[in-house]
Design a protein that fits this description.
single chain; alpha/beta; Barwin-like endoglucanases; six-stranded mixed β-barrel; 2 helices; 6 strands; 19% helix
Length: 149
């Protein structure tokens, strides 16, 4: 081995071994899962979110007492060329109005559209819906679906 290479490898080897020690010390740390507090944010404030305008995205003013819980649905991005706030979901058999609540506590009023798929097959949300809820477009998000009955 070349004698000029050995001194260069020593710091790399020391850092590698130190990193192994960090992993061992944190292996016993308890797992913490943070969830939004009850009564947390329930609407999107279009006045402070510059990416939205109130004309584009009708937002639920406050949680409504009426409505029927339809279920939870893992949701992906629907056809981005179709405008509006809608959710295609197997949780409904006919089009109806409703609302959806994201894991971050935000909720919006949407048109619920049937997909005809099996109940656990997942849903597709409009581009405007993803934006209004503040969700990443590539994420598979679990939404609470509530039908207005």
């Amino acid at each position: 081995m070349n004698m000029t290479v050995a001194p260069l490898l020593a710091p790399f080897l020391a850092l590698s071994l130190a990193a192994c020690g960090v992993v061992d010390r944190t292996a016993d740390a308890p797992l913490t899962i943070e969830t939004p507090p009850a009564g947390g944010p329930t609407t999107v404030d279009t006045a402070t979110d510059q990416s939205l305008s109130s004309a584009e995205v009708p937002i639920a003013e406050q949680p409504q007492a009426e409505g029927r819980f339809l279920g939870f649905s893992v949701t992906s991005l629907g056809d981005a060329t179709i405008p509006g706030l809608w959710l295609e979901t197997p949780l409904v058999n006919a089009p109806m109005t409703g609302r959806i609540v994201a894991e971050n506590g935000r909720q919006i009023a949407v048109e619920l559209r049937p997909t005809g798929g099996a109940r656990g097959s997942g849903s597709r949300l409009s581009l405007a819906g993803f934006t209004a809820l503040g969700l990443q477009l590539t994420a598979l998000s679990t939404l609470t679906v509530i039908g207005d009955a």
